[in-house]
Design goal:
By secondary structure, this protein is an alpha/beta fold. The protein has 22 helices and 20 strands.
Length: about 725
């Protein structure tokens, strides 16, 4: 939830921008548009209770608006001066107003400068928190004043102290240093609100009092807030035969620790368990990113479909050639025998059928077309009913469509019967004529006149063979353009542009490469040559031999349609270009991780996601994306050596792995309680802060040295 504890609603001091003046309606609109869940009014050295009540009424949500003030304060040293926000809960607004009037008296906002000790004495009893300008936010508190302030408030009340720098970078550094940090808008112009990135509370609170308990690291409160997210249990295996029972949260779960403590193995075993339970998982393993990236570009699961190019897939044509048989013309000797025996039996002359000729047979193509149409319509009607497609239409339209589809099916069925009877009756009539002639010949010891010369059937069969082969060859002919591209967004490569996975489909050509095809290019070309020879010899004496050769090629190379002739390649391209771009190893990791995190899954498993990537990218992109997934209620389980991922994500669960003198230990905890508890010995408790500094930062001293260097460079 977004929180802004530094808002101005009116011009109070000289130098304040008049654009800080805002009416309740515009205030509500700005806060709602920015999706800010909690906001505090902190005008300079004054609190307008009447305005607070109006704004609170306009917001209409309890606990969304908190009363506060921004005071000019000082310590005991000379020239001490800084700004401090004092904020309390809305239930204490009247006490807060009284305390502020007692502190500032009749002083005008421009004249107020109060001692920090007096501030504490007036506001501590009403449960206020105190946020001092720090580091680069002027006027900021000095180290000396900070030390005095912390002494005055006491160790037990130190949780009330927060610090506000100007940038999120400093927030991160100071947070890792153990300070409570808060960043506010310090709004200058309500037309530009919020004009900065506001903090997002990892544990959403419902009241000021709950916020204070969170700041105090109250265990019960933290468990209550953490418990708003679901959990799931897994048995992980860091080593063979070793079981580690973990309760993971549907949020960010971070695993860190020494090298060689089985973190990767734990992640892989968790993924295996979750998949077996039916949960969808997306995983990224930094040490396997090159293999994972190559898998991303794999074409094995892609369908090679000729219809993509508006062409037949050729399965019917290939089947027709494989089942083709030559029609043999009637031999001349059959006519000679008929002529020479025609007068051998006087009774035979009375059977005119012995001289009858066959009817011209029709093709079964019309019936075959009917059958395909009937199958297509029947399949759709079944899918229409089974999948409830009618729900997309008004009931009357749905019923009408179904009735029309059923009518279409009946019409196709009726027509297919007619076509079947039409071609099959002629075929049966010719068969019957041949049987009758055989009976006449057997009883008369003569030979009936052949029913047909067979030449027409012979020519038809050869023409059909040639046309079928020609159709296949035309389906493989070059087209312009000879390729088709598919594009899928992959990720952002910064100044280089957006990266896309480009999938190129193209038929076999001179430019084709072997890796584009499931079968060898030489085998495909040999098959095509056999097809071309079959076409060329279809009307000649070698037709049968060429048909058998073609059938052998189909069997040898397992080709039953034209899909093997479509080559597919996948590669990376930038922006609108289709030119191939070769990403570096680091860029492969960026793109693969981006692809992984953009998928929809129940659980995201990441192992050393930071490998090969800059720290700025890890913090600005990966961390932000992980936190977004957590806000969506997704579970993220990651193993890392990077503090930006292990610390700045503020994980709901931290798992620390340790190896000491041959003994492996697993600790669980979180940054909110600052504890890591041994899962096998609850009395063995480590400090989350100390261990994260030691393991992730290289030691407390190394971190402090870097902090000093960074801050010196930013002054």
């Amino acid at each position: 939830m977004k929180i802004d504890l530094h808002c101005h609603t009116k011009k109070c001091k000289q130098g304040d921008s008049p654009n800080r003046n805002v009416c309740p309606e515009d205030f509500k609109k700005a806060v709602d548009d920015a999706q800010v869940d909690i906001v505090a009014i902190t005008n300079h050295n004054t609190f307008d209770l009447e305005q607070f009540n109006r704004f609170n009424k306009e917001l209409g949500e309890e606990e969304k608006l908190w009363p506060g003030v921004e005071l000019d304060v000082c310590g005991s040293r000379d020239k001490s001066h800084w700004h401090m926000l004092v904020i309390t809960g809305p239930s204490k607004k009247d006490q807060f107003n009284t305390a502020l009037q007692q502190l500032t008296g009749s002083m005008s906002p421009d004249k107020v400068l109060v001692n920090v000790g007096e501030v504490f004495s007036h506001f501590r009893d009403i449960g206020a928190i105190f946020i001092s300008h720090a580091h680069d936010k002027s006027p900021h508190i000095s180290p000396e004043d900070m030390s005095e302030m912390e002494t005055l408030i006491g160790e037990e009340e130190k949780w009330r102290l927060f610090y506000e720098p100007r940038s999120l970078v400093t927030v991160g550094i100071w947070t890792n240093h153990g300070f409570n940090m808060m960043l506010g808008s310090d709004v200058q112009d309500w037309n530009k609100y919020p004009n900065c990135e506001l903090p997002d509370l990892r544990l959403p609170v419902s009241s000021f009092e709950q916020f204070c308990l969170l700041a105090k690291r109250d265990g019960k409160t933290i468990e209550t807030l953490l418990g708003k997210r679901g959990t799931f249990n897994v048995i992980a295996h860091p080593h063979a035969g070793v079981d580690v029972s973990l309760t993971l949260r549907e949020d960010i779960n971070v695993m860190f620790g020494q090298k060689g403590t089985g973190k990767t193995e734990i992640l892989k075993s968790i993924e295996k368990v979750l998949l077996s339970e039916g949960r969808t998982c997306c995983s990224y393993y930094g040490n396997e990113k090159h293999e994972g990236f190559n898998t991303l570009l794999s074409t094995e699961d892609l369908v090679r479909e000729p219809s993509r190019f508006g062409r037949t897939n050729g399965s019917d044509e290939i089947s027709k050639i494989l089942n083709w048989s030559d029609a043999t013309p009637t031999s001349l000797s059959a006519y000679v025998t008929w002529w020479s025996t025609r007068g051998n039996n006087n009774n035979k002359d009375r059977f005119e059928l012995s001289n009858a000729q066959n009817l011209d047979e029709l093709s079964d193509s019309a019936f075959t077309t009917d059958q395909k149409a009937n199958k297509a319509v029947s399949s759709f009607v079944a899918a229409y009913r089974d999948n409830g497609y009618g729900s997309y239409l008004e009931k009357q339209d749905a019923d009408t469509l179904l009735a029309l589809l059923e009518k279409l099916g009946r019409s196709i069925h009726h027509q297919s019967k007619e076509h079947f009877i039409e071609y099959r009756s002629i075929e049966l009539a010719n068969i019957a004529l041949a049987k009758i002639k055989n009976e006449i010949d057997a009883k008369s010891e003569t030979k009936s006149k052949p029913g047909s010369t067979g030449f027409l059937a012979f020519v038809k069969a050869r023409i059909e063979l040639k046309e079928t082969a020609e159709k296949l060859i035309n389906a493989l002919a070059p087209i312009n353009p000879n390729h088709e591209f598919g594009r899928e967004y992959l990720g952002d490569l910064g100044d280089k542009g957006d990266a896309y996975i480009v999938t190129r489909y193209r038929y076999l050509s001179k430019e084709s490469k072997t890796k584009e095809f499931e079968k060898g290019i030489r085998d495909l070309r040999t098959w095509k040559i056999a097809l071309e020879e079959l076409r060329d010899e279809a009307m000649g004496p070698m037709a049968n031999a060429k048909q058998q050769d073609f059938a052998a090629r189909c069997n040898e190379h397992a080709i039953s349609d034209l899909s093997p002739f479509i080559g597919i390649s996948r590669y990376i391209a930038l922006d609108e270009s289709n030119d191939e771009y070769a990403p570096s190893s680091g860029e492969e990791g960026i793109l693969l991780l981006s692809h992984t995190l953009n998928k929809d899954a129940d659980v995201y498993i990441l192992d050393e996601a930071e490998l090969g990537m800059s720290n700025s990218y890890v913090d600005a992109v990966i961390r932000e994306r992980i936190q977004k997934l957590a806000r969506q209620g997704k579970a993220v389980v990651l193993a890392t050596h990077n503090a930006n991922l292990a610390v700045r994500t503020l994980p709901y669960l931290s798992v620390y792995r340790e190896h000491d003198n041959g003994v492996y230990r697993t600790y669980i905890g979180n940054p909110f309680t600052d504890e890591l508890v041994d899962i096998n010995d609850s009395s063995n408790v480590l400090s989350w802060t100390k261990k994260s500094l030691e393991v992730l930062e290289g030691s407390k001293e190394a971190f402090y040295n870097r902090r000093d260097v960074y801050e010196a460079g930013m002054r």
